[in-house]
Prior knowledge:
Elements: H1 39-49, E1 54-57, E2 63-66, H2 69-77, E3 82-83, H3 91-97, H4 110-121, H5 123-126, H6 130-144, E4 149-151, H7 152-157, H8 160-168, H9 176-187, H10 195-213, H11 221-226, E5 229-230, E6 233-234, H12 237-266, H13 270-278, H14 283-293, E7 298-303, E8 307-309, E9 312-314, E10 319-323, H15 325-328, H16 362-379, E11 384-385, E12 393-394, E13 400-401, E14 405-407
Parallel strand pairs: 2-10
Antiparallel strand pairs: 1-2, 3-7, 4-14, 5-6, 7-10, 8-9, 11-14, 12-13
Bound molecules: protoporphyrin IX containing FE.
Residues 76, 87, 102-103, 114, 117, 121, 246-247, 250-251, 254-255, 258, 296-297, 299, 324, 351-353, 357, 359-361, 364-365 line the site of protoporphyrin IX containing FE.
Amino acid sequence: MEVGVKEPVDNVVSRPVNVPADRVIDFDIYRDVPEELDFHQSWRQLMDTVPYPLMWTPHNGGHWVAFKASVSDIVMSDSERFSNHTVLVPKETAGEAYRLIPLSLDPPEHRPFRNLLNDNLGPKPLKPVEDTIVDLTVSLIEGFRPKGRCNFVHEFAEQLPVRIFMQIVDLPVADLPKLKHLADQFTRPDGSLTYPEVAQLFREYLDPVIKARRGAGGQDMLSRMINGQVGGRELSDLEAQNICIQVLVGGLDTVVNMLGFTFSYLAKDHDLRQAIAADPSRIDDALLEFFRRFPVVSSAREVRGDIDFEGVNLKAGDMVMAPTIVVAIDDEMNDNPLDFQLNRPARKHSTFGKGSHTCPGAHLARMEMKIVLREWFARIPEFRIAGDEPLRYTNGIVGSVKPFVLEWDI
Ligand code: HEM
């Protein structure tokens, strides 16, 4: 690997013969959301303007994008036609640099690795972490509450889930900035590192950790996974690295951004704040609607063999992006989908994915979000966004709200 040589984040290619001219769209998943739109509105605008639910973009190596719930869900879950071999674009750089386990594995190879994760992320193994989450949540909130303001993203959202996570995997909090930076380059690369550099830095960091924890009897999540069995054998060093990178990326970025979307919305919805403050048991309903209304992940699949799909011919090796975002905000799934409805009678979404790769971290994510809402509303029931600047958003494999300041009366 040539360290220091920057790879362009984008990689624009010309239209291949299997792509009809009217299927082309100028869409770059790593481009910032236009200033006048919010993240989900910008996706909805695309859905409303594209002529077909499956379009092709020349950006990031050239790939298809689903703009309709039913198409995205099929691509995500139909492993007969769409492989998990590569789940990131550009395929040749990002996709090839990360062989994530278990995300890049197809059935039946996927299952034993997935079992390792399920064994460690269910309600039972996570029960002991609950008190830690409460303590950390309270101490972070109490740290800034008397000041009447905080940079919500920097001082809270980026702190809580990642510190909890470092505890679960028993890694030092001092390593957090380094790991968070690497995780961000993975989901929203800024061009400061090439994809192989990011993968290599992850491996260099994890290699001694894995070696030290092999057979050492540790009970943290990484130790239990590293020392787990797949199909009656031990994990190789490379497999152990790839499963650890996957868990770090999954655990370090998603909840941070879900918190950003949730609190930036709460700050603008007076009635919702009042409803929760008056009756904290409404937090359960609010959570269901937050997870429906604010999906953030846009992952992709690789076409296995030439197929006709959605009126076009897909070639073996073509990449198809299946954003979870378009599922929840499609009228076919939810009435008035961009409305936040606490009392929504039914909800359909794929915020945690669809099919065999559906997120194993969903229980942890729900647990963290519930504790945060409960402890926050018990201490700061009324708050607003400081200043007049509109919120700004970043697209990427995981969408995010750019840092914003909340303030409240003291
Ligand atoms: C609100 C928070 C979260 C959201 C919205 C979310 C979303 C997702 C989605 C959409 C997928 C499927 C991706 C695909 O099929 O291509 C996924 C997979 C995954 N997530 Fe999460 N996630 C969240 C939190 C977490 C946490 C906290 C962890 C780890 C502790 C985690 C670990 C993983 C792993 C390991 C996979 C791969 C599973 C497999 O391939 O079988 N996630 N997540």
